[in-house]
Amino acid sequence: MERTLIILKPDAVKRAVVGEVISRFERAGLKIVGIKMLKPTYDEFYNHYEKIGKMISRRGQEAFDMTLEFMEEGPVIAVVLEGIDCVGLVRKMVGDTEPQKAAPGTIRGDYAHMGFGHSNKEKIGVPNIIHASGDPEEAAEEIAHWFAEAELFDYETVHEVYTQARNRSKK
Q1: Which CATH architecture has domain 2-148?
Q2: The one catalytic residue among 48, 113, 131, 145
């Protein structure tokens, strides 16, 4: 099974849509194996967005600074999800990083709308509800950054009955 990390950003927490967002992943058959609310430090966000995500080289120092300022506005909720090909599934469900381009039905398409143009003009981070790991390697690094192994749990869900070998039901 594959694992990925999502972070529900301060705008998701302040707008009280955390439960709605998490329930979308559960309804899709993904399992929560770790979850916690935290108020990360600048250094923790720096490690996440630059050391792991290489945001400065991808989007520039100004975008990085605006993002970190936005992320420090309130608590976040970090969640580790597990499932078959879950990194790709989560990215598909989350939608485009720029909410203005996110398709309706995606999390960002349904809960956010600001584009990078407005964000850059106003010098503010884009309130796009959620962060999702970009690929399995990034997911592994991000999970290790935000969670200790003891904070991750192994258990079986009802969804797994339908995704495991069928001989299990013959026992």
Answers
A1: 2-Layer Sandwich (3.30)
A2: 131
